[in-house]
Specification:
This protein is an alpha/beta fold. It has 16 helices and 13 strands. It has helices at about 1-10, 10-15, 15-30, 35-50, 110-130, 150-155, 210-225, 265-285, 305-315, 325-335, 345-350, 355-365, 385-390, 415, 420-445, 445-460, and strands at about 55, 65-70, 75-80, 135-145, 165-175, 175-180, 180, 185-195, 235-240, 250-260, 290-295, 380, 395-400. Helix 7 crosses helix 8. The longest helix has 23 residues, at about 420-445. The chain is globular and about 85 Å long.
């Protein structure tokens, strides 16, 4: 079986050119949340060509799809994302910030690589099942709108992941490691204030300023920050000031708030308090406030059992080797990015043993982290991901794969620039192999899925998943 697993994992190399061309095509056609028609169409075509049964429109989202092969248990899910970020357009392979098209989107989080890497793993697992005539099912999930849309949350609300026994995914980054962090649950809410327009000089008393209300809300939230738990975050963007003429009392204003906490209970309480601030601002200005719930996502529930499976494969699959040209290019990109705390530093600080610290030290000064890092202890991360909603439905694990020079900030022009490089391609193929190997391990040893499910039940205390997105909220373009 070990030999047959190795043959299946090597299938990723056999389709390497296809995967790299698909990833580059997604990079060339970046589309933002719920608009990823090019990516969805590409995956639909390739899944059908490979013999997967395709379903579209999952969770009421036109660009959400799945490809299924096999039958019976266990059912393994491979999660692929493919949405881009707004305003992140950038030419590939250069060392200066230069948009392809000003204001257009770009792949600043590497989702062109993420989706295709998961797709490559699905093909390898499918061919393993096919060749060995084994029971079991593999499903590739094409998941839109991770960036600001919580696509997987809408899919989970629609029971898309109910029958999955184990799910695997990955994320492009600066290291090869198993992701052991929990994440923050979040709510995203739009606040609209309605006032009354008037001439600001001749009849100011007749006006009721919606902009004043919004500014008072923002000030109130600033004071609120002192009185919320330390592991919460509140962000906002003013999306409409109500006009550009100071001589008119603005009768409309709008802001979008993103609230985060370590759990859904925590973010729900934060939402309640922010709402009170908004209502108070409306009362002070005699305006009306309207709340529009946009989306939410759950915190990630780690699976130590599946993490160990992924760590074993992370170390078993040969990590990419880099040429002198790739190393030189990586150093040049690093110089454009400045310095700051990195994900590598976060993992290093979580090391318990001197042996593990030594393994990290070997990597510290390299422009590209090439080897597999040791399994770190579980930690809390100040980011959010809709993978959390999957993890409350089935045991879920993910890895990070080196696709960029060390020290780059995610959501930066540098990440977009390196997204079509040979470095990015190598990291994507490596991640696909690790995911494929992990999936095959669960398929060939059903006890792994059972143990992971028992762990999940212990962590949740038997609490059933309740989607944080209200039933009446629809995916918003």
């Amino acid at each position: 079986m070990k030999e047959r697993k190795g043959e299946a994992v090597s299938e990723v190399d056999a389709i390497g050119d296809l995967l790299c061309s698909m990833s580059d095509a997604l990079w060339d056609h970046p589309q933002v949340k719920f608009r990823e028609t090019y990516a969805a169409g590409l995956f639909e075509t390739k899944l059908q060509e490979e013999g997967f049964a395709v379903k579209k429109g999952l969770g009421g989202i036109p660009t959400a799809l799945s490809g299924t092969y096999g039958s019976g248990k266990p059912v393994i899910g491979l999660l692929g994302e493919f949405d881009a970020l707004p305003g992140m357009s950038q030419e590939a392979g250069i060392l200066t910030k230069k948009p392809v098209q000003e204001g257009a989107p770009g792949h600043g989080c590497g989702h062109n690589l993420l989706g295709v890497g998961a797709f490559g793993a699905a093909i390898a697992v499918k061919r393993f099942l096919e060749k060995n005539h084994l029971p079991g099912t593999v499903i590739f999930f094409g998941c839109p709108a991770e960036e600001g849309g919580s696509g997987k949350g809408f899919m989970a609300r629609d029971h898309v992941f109910d029958d999955v026994d184990a799910a695997f995914t990955w994320h492009p980054g600066e290291v090869n490691s198993v992701s052991v962090s929990s994440t923050m649950a979040n709510y995203q809410v739009r606040y609209r204030f309605y006032g009354k327009a008037s001439h600001a000089a001749m009849a100011p008393e007749r006006g009721r300023s919606a902009l004043d209300a919004l500014e008072l809300m923002n000030v109130g939230v600033q004071f609120l920050r002192e009185h919320v738990p330390a592991d919460t975050r509140i962000h906002y963007a003013i999306t409409d000031t109500g006009g550009f003429a100071p001589g008119i009392v603005q009768d409309f204003s709008e802001a979008v708030y993103l609230m985060r906490a370590g759990s859904l209970d925590g973010v729900r309480e934060l939402y309640r308090r922010v709402n009170l601030v908004a209502q108070g601002a409306a009362t002070m200005t005699e305006t009306k406030v309207e709340e529009q719930f946009i989306k939410a996502c759950s915190n990630i529930l780690p699976s130590s059992r599946l993490n160990r499976v992924m760590q074993k494969n992370l170390e078993a699959v040969p990590a990419p080797a880099y040429s002198s040209e790739e190393l030189a290019y990586a150093r040049a990109v690093q110089k454009t990015a400045g310095s700051g705390k990195t994900y590598f530093d976060q993992l290093y600080s979580a090391c318990d043993s001197e042996k593990d610290r030594e393994r990290f030290e070997v990597q510290r000064d390299l422009p590209l982290h090439a080897g597999a890092l040791p399994l770190a202890k579980e930690s809390f991360g100040f980011v959010s991901s809709d993978v959390g909603d999957v993890s409350w439905n089935c045991p879920t694990a993910q890895i990070n794969g080196t696709t960029m020079p060390a020290g780059l900030a995610m959501h930066s022009w540098q990440v977009v620039s390196v997204g079509k490089s040979s470095i990015a391609h190598k990291g994507m193929l490596y991640a696909a192999k690790v995911m494929a190997g992990s999936a095959i391990d669960v398929l060939t040893d059903p006890s792994v899925a059972a143990e992971a499910k028992e762990e999940m039940d212990r962590r949740t205390g038997g609490k059933k998943y309740v989607c944080p997105i209200p039933e009446d909220v629809k995916p918003q373009i």
